[in-house]
Design a protein that fits this description.
- This protein is mostly helical.
- 11% of the residues are buried.
- The radius of gyration is 18 Å and the shape is elongated.
- The longest helix is centred in the C-terminal third of the chain and has 22 residues.
- 70% of the residues lie in helices and 0% in strands.
- The protein is built from seven helices and no strands.
């Protein structure tokens, strides 16, 4: 696993190593080891991390340079809840407009 990616994703979620360790039932030293590329989490724990942070294992493992779903989520985190709601409403409007135009 690419430790720097785990650290990046964890920080994007305003999470601490201590909190992640507690959630995964491991020690802070274990999380630190993952982030410093000294060791890797077991498969089951990697899956749990992916679910927790809604990020692909390919991205965390370094098999992919981007995770489109995570990138979208990261961009959305820049907005307030009110702004995210406005984006969802605009998206619904555009989908409605497209459907009306194409008849599909």
């Amino acid at each position: 696993m690419k430790g720097e990616r785990l650290a990046e994703v964890r920080k994007d979620h305003n999470d601490t190593q201590a909190n992640l360790a507690k959630r995964l039932h491991v020690t802070v030293a274990t999380v630190r080891g993952w982030e410093q590329n000294r060791c890797s989490p077991p498969h089951e724990t990697l899956v749990e991390i992916c679910r927790l942070y809604e990020v692909s294992s390919d991205y965390l493992l370094g098999l992919s340079q981007v995770d489109p779903a995570y990138d979208k989520k990261r961009r959305q985190m820049l907005f307030s809840e009110e702004e995210r709601q406005a984006l969802r409403e605009f998206e619904r409007y555009l989908l409605w407009k497209k459907k009306a135009k194409t008849g599909k």
